[in-house]
Amino acid sequence: MNYAWNWSVLFQAPYLGWLGQGIAMTMMVSIAAWIIALTLGTLIGILHSGASGALRLVTGCYINVFRNVPLLLQMFLWFFVVPELLPKAAGTWLKRDLPHPEVVTAIVALGLFTASRVAVQVAAGIAAVPRGQSMAAYASGLSTLQRYKLVLLPQAFRIVVPPMTSEFLTIFKNSSIALSIGVYELTAQTQQIQSFTYQGFEAFTAATVTYMTIALIVTALMTVIERRIAIAGPLARG
Amino acid sequence: MIRIEGLSKSYGDLPVLRNCSLEVGRGEVVVICGPSGSGKSTFVKCMNGIEPVQAGRITIDGEVLPSKPAAAARIRSRVGMVFQHFELYPHLTVMENICLAQIHVLKRGRGEAEAKARALLRRVGLADKESAYPTQLSGGQQQRIAIVRALAMDPIAMLFDEPTSALDPEMIGEVLAVMLELAREGMTMIVVTHEMGFAKAAAGRIVFMDHGEIVEVAETQHFFAQPSSERARLFLSRILAH
Ligand SMILES: Nc1ncnc2c1ncn2[C@@H]1O[C@H](COP(=O)(O)OP(=O)(O)OP(=O)(O)O)[C@@H](O)[C@H]1O
Ligand SMILES: [Mg+2]
C-alpha cells in the first residue's frame, strides 16, 4: 500500500474545526433523540405491558412498524415523503421555515425509531417482575397507577438498565445515518475532510477513535449507575 | 364478616371453582385444605377481589365486593393477604415495605406509619430489621414481615395462602407462632395450609376442597375424628401419614 500518512491535517484549520463541529452535532442529535426515545419508549412500553386490548394493539403496531422498517428508509420517509403528505401549509413550513430541517428530522426519526426499541425493553422489564409482586400490591389496595409507580417500575428499571445502556450506545452509532439527509455530524465531517484533503485514513481513524471513546465513557458511567442501584436494593431473586 | 355465595370461576375453558359458598364470622379462624390444584389459592384470591369471578357474590363486612377489580381497591385494602412466596418488595427496605400501602392507600403520615410498623415489628421479634432489605432475611423472617405488612393496614380479616409451605422446616414454627397469636387475639382468619397441627390448635372449622368444589365444611374436631366425605378421609390419611 502506497499511502502518504499525514496526521497533521487533522489539526489544521479548518479541518480541526470540522471535526469538532461533527462531534458536537453527533452528541446533540444523539442526546436529543435519546430524550425522545426514552420518554416515548417508556410510555409505550408501560402501556404495552398493561392488559387492555385496544391499547396493546396500538402500541404493538407502533413497535412493529418502527422497529422493522430500516432506519435509513425512515430518515428518507420523514425528510422527503412526510412533508408532501401533510397539508400544504404545514409541508411548506417544514421545508422552508423550520430552521435546520435536516437536523430536526434526523432527531425525530432517530428518536421515534429508538423509542420502539426502548418500548420493547421496558415492556420486557415489567413482564420480568414476578406476578406475585403485582398481586401483593393489588391486594394491599394500591391503584393501578400506584402499582406501576411504586412496585413494578422501580423493579423493572433495575432490570432494564443494562439493555438501555446498549440502546444508548446504539443511538450514537445510528446517528451517523443522519448524514444521508445532509446533517453534518461526525461521519459526514470526516467524509468532507477526506474529499478536501485526500487524507481519508486519518479522518476516518479520528472518527473511529471518537465513537469508541464515547462508547467507553458511556459504558463506564452506566456500570457505576448499575452498581449504585444494585446496592440500593439487591434483587437476588430470579 | 365474609360471606361468599355461589362463587364460580374458570380460566378460559378450565373451571377452577364451582358454586362455592362459605360464611366466616367475626373472629373465626377457618382452615382450607385439599389436594394440589383443587382451587384453594384461587378461592382466597377471589375473596378479596384480586381474581375476577364469573358468577357469585362476595360480601365483606356488609359491603358487596364490586365485580370490577379496580373498583374493589378500598375494600381490598381492609383485608390483609399473605402469600406463599412472601412477595415483599425487594427494592424497598423492611420499613418501606410496611409503610407503602399505609401511606399511599390509607394516607397516613410517615411518622404514624413508621410508629405502627415499629410496634408490629417488635411484636414479631424483628425490631432490629427495619432497615434491612428482604433478600438479606431468612424465609421465616420475610414471612413474618409480610404478616406485619398486612397487619399494619388494620385489616378486618386476614387471608393466608400456604404461608409456610415455601419455608425450611426449622422456620415454620416461628411463622405459625405469630399466626396462632393472631388467632388468639380474635383476628378473623382464612388460612390455606397443610399444617394440620396449626389447624387443630387454631381453627374452628375446616373447609375441604377438591376439584374446585367445597366438599365439606366441618368443626375442626369433627373433621379430624370423623370426616363425612370419602374424599376428605382419603386426603387426611395421606397427609397425616407423613
Ligand atoms: N393464572 C392461571 N391461569 C390458568 N390456570 C390457572 C391459573 N391459576 C391457577 N390455574 C389452575 O387452576 C386450578 C386451581 O389452582 P389453584 O392454584 O387455585 O389450586 P391450589 O388448590 O391452590 O393448588 P396448590 O395446592 O398446588 O397451591 C389448577 O388446575 C391450576 O392449574
Ligand atoms: Mg395454592
Query: Uncertain spans of chain B, ≥5 residues at pLDDT below 50?
Result: none
* Largest sheet entry of chain A: none
- How many domains would you count in the coordinates of chain A? 1
The CATH superfamily label of chain A reads: MetI-like
Rg over CA atoms of chain A: 22 Å
Largest sheet of chain B: 6 strands, mixed
Quaternary state reads heterodimer
Order of helices and strands of chain B: EEEHEEHEHHHEHEHEEHH
Please work out how many helical segments of chain B DSSP would assign.
9
Number of helical stretches of at least 4 residues of chain A:
9
Give the C-level CATH assignment of chain A: Mainly Alpha
The count of strands of chain A amounts to: 0
What is the overall silhouette of chain B?
globular
The computed structural class of chain A is mainly alpha
First and last CA, distance of chain B: 35 Å
Q: Summarize model confidence as the mean pLDDT of chain B.
A: 93
Task: Describe the protein in words.
The complex is a heterodimer of chains A (238) and B (242). Chain A has helices spanning 15-49, 53-68, 71-85, 88-97, 101-127, 131-139, 144-174, 186-197, 200-231. Chain A contains nine helices and no strands. The model of chain A has no long low-confidence stretch (mean pLDDT 90). In chain A, helix 6 packs antiparallel against helix 7 (144-174). The N and C termini of chain A lie far apart (55 Å). Chain A has one domain: MetI-like (MetI-like fold), CATH 1.10.3720. With 238 residues, chain A is an all-alpha fold. Chain B has helices at residues 40-47, 73-76, 94-104, 110-123, 139-151, 169-184, 196-202, 220-225, 230-241; strands spanning 2-11, 14-24, 29-33, 55-60, 63-64, 79-82, 157-161, 189-192, 205-210, 213-219. The radius of gyration of chain B is 18 Å and the shape is globular. Helices cover 38% and strands 25% of the residues of chain B. Chain B is of the alpha/beta class and 242 residues long. In chain B, strands 6-7-8-3-9-10 form a six-stranded mixed beta sheet, sandwiched between helices. In chain B, strands 2-1-4-5 form a four-stranded antiparallel beta sheet, covered by helices on one side. Chain A binds chain B through residues 130, 132-133, 135-144, 146, 150-151, 154-155, 158, 232-237, and chain B through 45, 48, 50, 69-70, 73-74, 76-81, 83, 85, 87-92, 100-101, 104-105, 133, 135-136, 149-150, 153. Bound molecules: adenosine-5'-triphosphate and magnesium ion (MG). The site of magnesium ion has 4 residues of chain B, from helix 1.
